[in-house]
Every structure is written in structure tokens, then in C-alpha cells.
């Protein structure tokens, strides 16, 4: 059986000012302007309390990210998909982050950058001051 090679398209990067609520599939190169890390609150599930103890505490970071034109709020979680060291590198002040297949959500009347299962985020090798 012959395999068909799928030709991938080159990503098209957009500016933050061009993002509209409810849209998906955005590729961005953004810089972390500010970030604040907090611990996630544990829920009180009596049936799964033993499994909750074995998991490390998760952290939530609310970051203001942007390009040279506009900025947007991005909330990220340290979950099983991201190693904690990558999580800390990603939210470091001045870090350049490349996002692929990002989506734009509305929360309390403000736009937020978010990811679903097809989204991908990586830290660029560049560092600016």
C-alpha cells in the first residue's frame, strides 16, 4: 500500500491587533510583558482524595503577552502536558513565545489567548531585554 505524502503549509504569523473573538488557528510570535504565578486551588472531592494527594500541585500563570503593536492576556496552566521547567521558561519576563493554532476567547468582556487540544506553544531561542 502506497503512502501519500502530505505537504505542510508554512505558518502565517499574524499581529495581536488582528485577532477577533471566537476565531481559531492563529500563529503568533509574542513577548511576555508581565506574568503572575499562583497555585491552583484544590477541589474537595472525597472520592478521589487519595489520587489528589499523589499529584504535584498545579500552578496557574496569568501573562500579559504582545507584539510591537498590541497585547493580550494569556492564562496558562502547569499540567501534565508541560514539564515544570518549560512552564517557568515560558512565563519568564521578556521571553519570546511562538504559538500555533491559538484561539481567542472572551472572558468578562475581554479577549483572552487560549489553546485547545490542537494548539501548540514553544519558547523561541531569542531573548530580548
Automatic annotation (TrEMBL):
Coiled coil: none annotated. It comes from the Eukaryota. Pfam families: OB_Ssb-like (PF21473). Residues 19-123 form the Single-stranded DNA binding protein Ssb-like OB fold domain. InterPro entries: NA-bd_OB-fold (IPR012340), OB_Ssb-like (IPR048970). This is Single-stranded DNA binding protein Ssb-like OB fold domain-containing protein. It comes from Erythroxylum novogranatense.
Amino acid at each position: 500500500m502506497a503512502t501519500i505524502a502530505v505537504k505542510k503549509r508554512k505558518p502565517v504569523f499574524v499581529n495581536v491587533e488582528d485577532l477577533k473573538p471566537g476565531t481559531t488557528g492563529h500563529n503568533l510570535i509574542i513577548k511576555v510583558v508581565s506574568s503572575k504565578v499562583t497555585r491552583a486551588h484544590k477541589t474537595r472531592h472525597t472520592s478521589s482524595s487519595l489520587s489528589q494527594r499523589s499529584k504535584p500541585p498545579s500552578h496557574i500563570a496569568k501573562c500579559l503577552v504582545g507584539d510591537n503593536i498590541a497585547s493580550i492576556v494569556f492564562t496558562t496552566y502547569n499540567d501534565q502536558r508541560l514539564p515544570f521547567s518549560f512552564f517557568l521558561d515560558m512565563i519568564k519576563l521578556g521571553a519570546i513565545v511562538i504559538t500555533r493554532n491559538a484561539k481567542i476567547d472572551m472572558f468578562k468582556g475581554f479577549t483572552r489567548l487560549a489553546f485547545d487540544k490542537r494548539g501548540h506553544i514553544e519558547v523561541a531561542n531569542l531573548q530580548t531585554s
